[in-house]
Amino acid sequence: MQSMWFFDDVNLFKVLCPHKFKAYKKDHDFDAYKKKDYIYFEDDSANKVYLIEKGKVKIGYYTDTGDEVVKAILSKGELFGEKAILGDNKRDEFAQSIDNKTSICPIGVSTMHDLMRDNQTFSFKVYKFIGFKFKKLERRLQLLLFKDTKTRLVEFLDELCSDYGYDCQKIGDHVIKHPYTQKDMASLIGTSRSTLNILLNELKEENYLNFNRKEIRILKKIA
């Protein structure tokens, strides 16, 4: 299994959380959130970054007409709010818990800057992470703008395979064990849950995949 959120097999949470540093451990606490609780809103002050200890967080924004646009669904070990590190003073997105037992590790921007200044390798990992995240977001926005819904789904499945998949050696399928619900996936490709289900079943009938709640299996092509 390989994920863009991990560098050199090191979970970002294990590297960044202040609990790992004696100088910051004493005054550091985790924040607990339930489903639909907001961690921050658009236009809030950007003075912290956040790591997910457990649970899931939705990142998105609202259009002028009030429609919600989901940019990412994040899970354990992932970082968000990172634009604060780059100097943004206000949020241009919201972050919302979509799990009833979400636990967040908040890190003040000044603390993060201290850690980055004192450790060049640590700093490199953070900037590399931010670069990969922006690249992934840009690719997803291009899909939403220029591809039809079925193509968006297939390319999103390819992305999931890269992030969460592995080869099943016995039969040669690509097995994807991912953290998303169908509602999450529908939001990320800009469609409804019912349309997503229709398309998944179409791909199943075409012998492209099999799926259940726990995994998606991209089937090996027989020549």
UniProtKB/TrEMBL annotation:
UniProt xrefs under PROSITE patterns: CNMP_BINDING_3 (PS50042), HTH_CRP_2 (PS51063)
Read off the InterPro entries from this record: cNMP-bd_dom, cNMP-bd_dom_sf, Env_Response_Regulators, HTH_CRP, RmlC-like_jellyroll, WH-like_DNA-bd_sf, WH_DNA-bd_sf
Query: Any stretches that span the bilayer, and where are they?
Result: none
Q: Taxonomically, which superkingdom?
A: Bacteria
Q: Where is the Cyclic nucleotide-binding domain?
A: 12-91
Chain ranges of the HTH crp-type domain: 147-222
In its keyword annotation, does this UniProt entry include DNA-binding? yes
| Family matches, as SMART domains | cNMP (SM00100), HTH_CRP (SM00419)
What keywords are assigned to this protein? DNA-binding, Transcription, Transcription regulation
Q: Which Pfam families match?
A: cNMP_binding (PF00027), HTH_Crp_2 (PF13545)
PANTHER family documented for this protein: CRP FAMILY TRANSCRIPTIONAL REGULATORY PROTEIN (PTHR24567), HTH-TYPE TRANSCRIPTIONAL REGULATOR ARCR (PTHR24567:SF74)
Listed name of the protein: Crp/Fnr family transcriptional regulator
